[in-house]
């Protein structure tokens, strides 16, 4: 992973690297957050911290102090002011061999800074349907945990650079999301996005759109998505990304997409600078 | 994790530690094997290598040369002759940020040696039912991959040291396995074990039992397990472990368990030394 700066911690103390026996590596026993950086600051910081804390509660991990986290991130950002993306990985640290978590974990943490992703294509994203499905697992649904092999397998299904993302169905054949973004479909004059109570990630940009009253949750069938008046993907790093094509279906620019992008840019200035796609 | 010896590699070269940006940590993008050591040699080596190679094919990982692997393991075992367990972790190594795998991965690998687990209780294991279920994911079923949060959550459900293992159901309510072992139930005069085509791990001891013609695969309901004439768990480290209790149901020693343990000890001498439970 091209990183502009990296720092690792165990139990809050800086270390050269995590242990090769860290449970994050051994079992994917941990969580992560991927944040947009704007003017050296993480965008939607409170939302990222809230999701991390919720994940810690679900997994029984100790949540680091948010002020301390922010301080470490700021210090790292000072080393790489050109960075556009920060990743925070939190693990349960080392334990005895076996699945039983240690009673007094010394959590592992990695902070890394990365360049901004390439700008999206000016006329919107080209999507495909993935064959790999997301298993129904309510105990982990919504969390941004480290068990991401389903997404890796789905992303391995294509290497055509003209295909920008893949949409994934769940085990019941309902639409959930893209491999690294949430999906919104404009149906009968409103924006709909699949719930993430059985699988999928509760994305931070998705959460902003729902909290702003710009969309609501609804279970979506593939044919409803294909028949939608407009689609967009979103995530916390890239904001709202209009969709131009899904397999053989094409969409032209839709005012409902402009409306949500304009609102996002107005309320979260970090997303103003790209300008309309 | 208490380890007697550890060695890490990237692209086949020894390194002090894996990168904090290794995809094994970032996404659980990798596989592992846990092996019993006997007289300084890994037991069922060919079966472990075969499962690892099958996992590499499914995930699109390059499989390391088995002879090289064996040599590295031998060298490490020479440093800790008292070790009873070896773990091999293989990852896709570093890549760019995002799920797309690197085109030319330099795989990460960790070898670690550990003490033997404590001897099982002389009168058999005491089991519980876990609430956490295994999601149905045929794309990953059978593999010993690094996405193990379901097992971690299940193992977190109890900390009573008198409960030795928990049995897990799949999303459809069928019995699959224990958190770290396969399950066999003696029903109508034959040993049955759940298939691992939708979830669960194709355990190496389980594979030996099936290949020896001592058992066959069958989908099992919880009530069938509870009504079975005998149960055992098994894995590659601990061999065959008779079950004495599951929740409120008790079993006394059964000759069918003795028969398979005796056969295992005869054909795989590493399992002789413990003597009958």
Explain the overall architecture:
- The structure is a homodimer of 277-residue chains.
- Chain A has 277 residues and is α+β, with helices and mostly antiparallel strands.
- Chain A has helices spanning 23-27, 45-59, 66-79, 149-155, 204-211, 222-227, 255-267; strands spanning 5-10, 13-15, 30-38, 41-42, 85-91, 108-114, 125-129, 165-169, 175-178, 181-187, 190-193, 215-217, 230-235, 239-246, 249-250.
- Chain A has two domains: 5-114, 2-Layer Sandwich (D-amino Acid Aminotransferase, Chain A, domain 1), CATH 3.30.470.10; 125-271, D-amino Acid Aminotransferase, subunit A, domain 2 (D-amino Acid Aminotransferase, Chain A, domain 2).
- In chain A, a hairpin with a 2-residue loop joins strand 9 (175-178) and strand 10.
- The mean pLDDT of chain A is 96.
- At the A-B interface, helix 1, strand 5, strand 6 and helix 4 of A face helix 1, strand 5, strand 6 and helix 4 of B.
């Amino acid at each position: 992973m091209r990183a502009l700066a990296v720092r690792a911690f165990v139990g809050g103390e800086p270390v050269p690297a995590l242990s090769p026996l860290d449970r994050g590596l051994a079992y994917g026993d941990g969580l992560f957050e991927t944040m947009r950086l704007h003017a050296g600051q993480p965008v939607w910081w409170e939302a990222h911290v809230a999701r991390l804390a919720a994940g810690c509660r679900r997994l029984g991990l100790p949540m680091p102090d948010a002020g301390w986290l922010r301080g470490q991130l700021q210090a790292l950002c000072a080393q790489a002011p050109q960075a556009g993306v920060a990743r925070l990985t939190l693990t349960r640290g080392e334990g005895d061999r076996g699945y039983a978590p240690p009673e007094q974990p010394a959590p592992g943490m990695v902070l890394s800074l990365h360049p901004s992703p390439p700008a999206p294509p000016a006329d919107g994203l080209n999507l495909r349907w993935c064959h790999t499905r997301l298993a129904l697992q309510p105990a982990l649904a919504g969390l941004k945990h480290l068990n991401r092999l389903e997404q890796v397998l789905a992303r391995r299904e294509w290497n055509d650079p003209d295909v920008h993302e893949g949409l994934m169905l769940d085990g019941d054949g309902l639409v959930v999301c893209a491999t690294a973004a949430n999906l919104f479909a404009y149906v009968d004059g409103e924006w709909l996005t699949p719930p993430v109570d059985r699988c999928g990630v509760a994305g931070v940009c998705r959460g902003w759109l729902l909290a702003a009253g710009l969309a609501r949750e609804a279970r979506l069938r593939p044919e409803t998505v294909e028949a939608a008046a407009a689609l967009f993907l979103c995530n916390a790093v890239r904001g709202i990304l209009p969709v131009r094509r899904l397999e053989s279906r094409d969409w032209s620019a839709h005012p409902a997409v402009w409306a949500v992008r304009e609102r996002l840019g107005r309320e979260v200035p970090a997303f103003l600078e790209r300008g309309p796609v």
